[in-house]
């Protein structure tokens, strides 16, 4: 798996170690998601996570790590979905929340797709305790002519 573009928007905050740790949580989440590493994601999540998400046509809620994992790997990125590349990751801070935007190249029996999601999260005890995700859906990959 390749990471094509990674940026961090932290210049306004300088060297705030708390911000750097939480930004790492978002980037680490993306890396584990792209690897479909459910053990790593479960270890990042607070046992009582407050997770909400919107995808085209559906809203999702979860209140514990197994429910989040079922949403991620039982619904969004099924076993037949191969995440072949992390195309872009952007992290930033919105007051007490981290924002992480990511774009993934996905291939499955139906074709090649680009999936982009924006997530906002905050942590407690080094784990993600609150997370909101908005997904653009599976968009057909456009090849250059």
Keywords summarizing the entry:
52% strand; 145 residues; Nuclear Transport Factor 2, Chain: A; disordered N terminus
What share of residues are in beta strands?
over 45%
> In total, how many beta strands?
8
Major beta sheet summary: 8 strands, mixed
Q: The CATH topology, please?
A: Nuclear Transport Factor 2, Chain: A
- Radius of gyration equals 15 Å
Count of helix runs: 3
> Uncertain segments of ≥5 residues (pLDDT<50)?
1-22
End-to-end C-alpha gap: 25 Å
Structure, explained:
The relative contact order is 0.21. The model is unreliable at 1-22 (pLDDT under 50). The chain has helices at 17-34, 38-44, 65-76, and strands at residues 2-3, 6-9, 45-55, 58-62, 82-94, 97-108, 111-124, 127-140. It is of the alpha/beta class and 145 residues long. Helix content is 26%, strand content 52%.
Quick take:
With 145 residues, the protein is α/β, with parallel strands linked by helices. Helices cover 26% and strands 52% of the residues. Strands 1, 2, 3, 4, 5, 6, 7 and 8 form an eight-stranded mixed β-sheet that branches.
């Amino acid at each position: 798996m390749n990471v094509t573009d990674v940026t961090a928007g932290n210049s306004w905050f300088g060297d705030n170690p708390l911000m750097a740790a939480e930004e790492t949580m978002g980037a680490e989440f993306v890396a584990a998601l792209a690897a479909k590493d459910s053990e790593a994601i479960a270890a990042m999540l607070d046992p009582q996570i407050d997770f909400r998400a919107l995808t085209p046509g559906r809203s999702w809620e979860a209140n514990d790590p197994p429910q989040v994992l079922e949403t991620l790997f039982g619904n969004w990125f099924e076993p037949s979905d191969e995440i072949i590349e992390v195309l872009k990751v952007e992290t930033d801070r919105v007051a007490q929340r981290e924002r992480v935007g990511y774009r993934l190249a996905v291939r499955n029996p139906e074709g090649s797709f680009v999936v982009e999601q924006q997530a906002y999260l905050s942590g407690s005890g080094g784990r993600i305790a609150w997370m909101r995700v908005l997904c653009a859906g599976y968009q057909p990959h456009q090849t250059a002519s």
